[in-house]
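Write out structure tokens for Transposase IS66.
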Amino acid sequence: MGPAIRYGCGMTRERLSITVEEFNALIAARDALEALRVEHDELRGELRVAKVERDLAKEQLQVMLRRLFGAKSEKRDPRQEDLFLNEAEMLAPTAATLPALEDGPETEVAAHKRKKRGRKPLDPALPRVVVRYEIPEAERFCAQDGTELVEIGVELSEQLDIIPQKIQVIRHERVKYACRKCDHGLKVAPAPLRIIPRGLFTEAALAWIVLSKFMDGLPLYRIAALLRRFGGNISRNTLAASVIRLGQSIQPVINLMRDVLLDDEVAQGDETNVQVLKEPGKAAQTKSAMWVQMNVVGPPVRLFSYAPGHDAKYGVALWAGMRKHAALMSDGGDVYDLIAKANDLVHLGCWSHCRRYFFEAEALLPKEARGPHQPATQFLHLIGRLYAAEARAKKAEMTPQRRTVIRRRYSSKVLGRIRTLLDQYLETTLPSGKLGQALGYLSAQWPKLCRYVENGLWPICNNACENSIRPFVVSRKNFLFCDTVAGAKASANLYSLVETCRANNVDIYRYLIDLFKALPHANSADDYEALLPWKLGQPPPGTDVTA
């Protein structure tokens, strides 16, 4: 040891001396400890990332399990309706505001009446076949005094009877006439015009096939099997050829329906996948697109259109000709931004799509963790307030002008609250989680989501268009694919006709029969316009569609 070093307090410390080897060993130990510390920090960081990825994977698994086995409805637990009751009362329309805006008389709410239980009576419009049961004449005497009994009434009960499809053959006999004195007087009664010349099926049979496929969702091979059950041995190829010919024949009516849609002030759009096996330049496994369009203000029109893909160029062509500055409601996809920009349209966002993200985020939470403190629940409640205002305006049958007033006075305040919540949670929430995705969608779509308050004609969501495309999506699970492009286009036309009839509350079967009979006689634009679904019962001049 070296000499002691004396301090002023009287304490001493011996001088330490180490060799170079020992010093280097200390330096190496220090570096090793530093490396271990860095490695420890890196492992902790990797562990945090792994935990986040694990939580995201578990969340995604819960989402998929819910989609497979959970309820499809987005209706929330009724016990959550009053979570923000006191807070919402400050924004909700009151009896002092809404009636004053509506300028209408006050109405009394009817007393609640419990519905009578029991079996629902059969439709009185159905035809009745009366089967009468009587006591034999020999027994119509009183057992006490032998007096003849008289009828005083009947006891009624009804049963529903179903008559299966009846298949018959219509045999057309065209009588031929000839001159007895020469060979130049031969005449044959003219054949009636048909929508499919020399076609195998009558108009009623064609209407039944169309309804079976495009309304009931039956693929053609099942329709063929059903016909065989009743004696009609018709091949699927024959049915397919007839459907394609029909879809091509109604093209003039579809064109007029498109003119009506493009002339509207407000329209809605959506698209879904469709597989076409024999599509030029594409493999059979690739997906094409079925676009759907609908209007809002004029006579209801639902248009389906086949396209080789979901690219913007196909959508731009479909919406070309829409009146300038009209509104286009969509799910907010980027392709619709390009469509709206190319055709000078006002693009509206869909609150239902926004709400769906928050609903999925809330559904992943354990029931005991749900409550007013959860961000997803807060957003869902405020979005519900927007829909409640729309429902009240609809129930009161408000004009677009009054609806605009309600939106600006009430809905705009709710939108302000939603924006405040968005700013509060957006920067502190993991973007890849369900709640983060919901906040990201809301932030990206915010300008389009808020536009609906500017005009009472503009819808708050795209639900109506999704409901129109649902029959095609359901049927697609049965027929799986279209064989050719011609078949896909024909299907689009027939879906358009069926769904437009449904939207106009038209008897689809009766309308199709009348349309198929009248189309061969139509020659002018006025003739075709008279055959539009909402003009049912106004046949072209000189045409007997009931013959």
